[in-house]
Amino acid sequence: MTDTKVYLLDFGTLVLDGYMMFWGRGPSGPFRFPCYGVLVEHKEGRFLFDTGYSKDWFDQNMPGLAQQTELQTVPGQLARIGLRPSDITHVVNSHMHVDHVGGNHLCTQACTLCHKKELESYKQPEIWEAHGYADRTALGTAAPDASPATPEPDDRVQDIVTPRFELLTGDNEIARGVHLFETPGHTPGHYSMMVELAGRRPMLFTGDACYTKRSLEENIIANAHTDVRDAHTSLQRLRDLAEQYDAELFYSHDPDAWRDWKPAPAHYS
Amino acid sequence: MTDTKVYLLDFGTLVLDGYMMFWGRGPSGPFRFPCYGVLVEHKEGRFLFDTGYSKDWFDQNMPGLAQQTELQTVPGQLARIGLRPSDITHVVNSHMHVDHVGGNHLCTQACTLCHKKELESYKQPEIWEAHGYADRTALGTAAPDASPATPEPDDRVQDIVTPRFELLTGDNEIARGVHLFETPGHTPGHYSMMVELAGRRPMLFTGDACYTKRSLEENIIANAHTDVRDAHTSLQRLRDLAEQYDAELFYSHDPDAWRDWKPAPAHYS
């Protein structure tokens, strides 16, 4: 564990109305927020937690929202630290919303880990969940060699699977010191990830269970949610985990916090 | 039943951002909407479904939202048809949010009917429910003769109870042809009301289970909700009830629909 490194990969930004970020609180007006992934270089593998969005899809379907350069993609960010998408051994999705799975299919040698309930929701979303999940077109063209070894009859899934696919339930330590914690509510099968490091406090990546520092402090869940009670319970769980492990919280879409962090090629260890 | 009459009582308007009306859909910008009550003149009693809001409370706590004249109050509206608040035998609350219970305490001879779960939520709201429910100050000064015969130790409740109080569960026919249907999701104990009349289609008052016609047509629940699934189920229930009884839907906060209806002193029968 002592040589584990964590890189924050900059995947660009999106913009939404403040009411879409902070349920029932706003304020109204454009709120531009970062999207990023987390590369965990670990002796047991290279784990990529969330893969950003496809700019092409946003430009075609929701023009004006996405700001992303070529550098702010999975290949672009990995290149900064001398890696290629095919070097990723595991993709881990906090959840399968369109801005978190956009680069999955590029990781042509990886096994995707996600919560069993999350895949179910992705395949058959409730009415109020459908807008968050990507359709085929959100994910670009599937990589030529992305022929799932795990047979999945559903076209929707073909596009986001890497060659292998593993479904999880409950909390999991997916590699020594790399923990997935169930934090549902935003989506049914949402995971937050905590990484223990030799030289600093554990890093607890909230995923969309907590968009920003303000969300935690003022107890504001994401406007997009499937279960109000679960979402509040998960906010509390993040507080409890941070205290239990003396972990530092890394919010998913906080422009202020993002400015204070060290993106790749810098790393945390 | 043949002499039952229904009056729509104009209680003024409020304004909220469009995102607060239409969950996740908006658009942003001020959306001004009517608040109204429904008087059912019935041989078994005078039933008042929802009692509006206290302008004083809004002016003090959320200034700029309320537009309400003296005429647009329970006393003002009842006076237009020759009645006083003390003539009301039953107050029926779709739910206990601040814009639906403001005149309860003025009905000094009435029994309040509400769902058992609704009172529980009012007394001990969840974190995400608290903003919607009135505190003491939202309800004006309790009428001097409003000494509840039903002892309730909780100060919050003293202010909204009429002299008597009756808790309901499940669907209820509270008078012949006057039906309460459970439609939870916006709040835990929400009721919609259907009134059968001799000379026209039944009138189905959705309450906040459906703010507007658009909400129903585009399947948009209120931004304020305690259970996403229940709220969508209740929207569907309203559609099903309307079809089953050939009822006309009366939405709770639809400025366009409101313009087409006949407010008191006119009536439906």
Automatic annotation (TrEMBL), chains A, B:
* Tagged with keyword Hydrolase: yes
Cite the CDD domains for this sequence: AHL_lactonase_MBL-fold
**Metallo-beta-lactamase domain: which residues?**
34-253
Q: Which Gene3D superfamilies match?
A: Ribonuclease Z/Hydroxyacylglutathione hydrolase-like (3.60.15.10)
Q: Which UniProt key words apply to this protein?
A: Hydrolase, Metal-binding, Zinc
Task: State the needed cofactors, names only.
Answer: Zn(2+)
| Tagged with keyword ATP-binding | no
One MF annotation (Gene Ontology) recorded for this entry: metal ion binding
Homology family: Belongs to the metallo-beta-lactamase superfamily.
UniProt protein name:
Zn-dependent hydrolase, glyoxylase
